[in-house]
Structure prediction request, 195 residues.
Amino acid sequence: MTPLLLATNNRHKVEEIRHFLASLPFEVRSLADIPNGPVTVEDEPTLEGNALKKAREAYAASGMLSLADDTGLEVFYLRMEPGVYSARYAGANPTYKDNCDKLLREMQGVAVRRRRAQFRTVIAIVGKGIERTVEGKVEGMILESPRGGQGFGYDPLFVPTGHTRSFAEMSIEEKNTLSHRALALEKAVTILSSL
Ligand code: IMP
Prediction:
């Protein structure tokens, strides 16, 4: 089994990625398993930059092949915001609800046909002699009020195209068949399998 360090403290991401990789020959660890793991400041202007920074710092601290995910919700009406600022959309240290409430305020009164959005995930893989990034994205629309109690972040506000339920109304398994993160992970697995 190849050890693989997930460079995140976000337990929801760890859960989704663990589920996704469950049948593959990786011994998955997360930063919670690493004493004195890095706390990366996500100050790059792009998802690619932040994902690479997280994976590089995790590799430097652990020597283990490291995988980091950076995700943004890009709303077309808001000219692709909050994007790379999705985590701190409502200010410093917001709750998921604070961020969702702010998005709902910004989108108040906006017609259904103008509520298109996409989730975009960039995954970086960094290890000995390797630095790669891959991307996954999924289009959908922003609801007018939250729906569902599963998932995390903006999941209660996002319905993927071709579906009627929000990500927060889906199980992890179902979200993992179509999400931005799952699409990026598929590409990441191709790279990991070739190492
Ligand atoms: P980051 O990738 O951890 O920087 O996440 C950016 C923001 O997007 C955070 O507010 C997350 O809660 C949110 N986010 C990340 N991935 C997802 C997802 O799969 N669904 C909903 N929100 C997400």
Summary: Residues 10, 42, 69-71, 73, 86-87, 96, 99, 151-155, 167, 179, 181 surround inosinic acid (CB under 6 Å). Strands lie at 2-6, 26-30, 66-75, 81-83, 116-127, 130-142, 158-160.
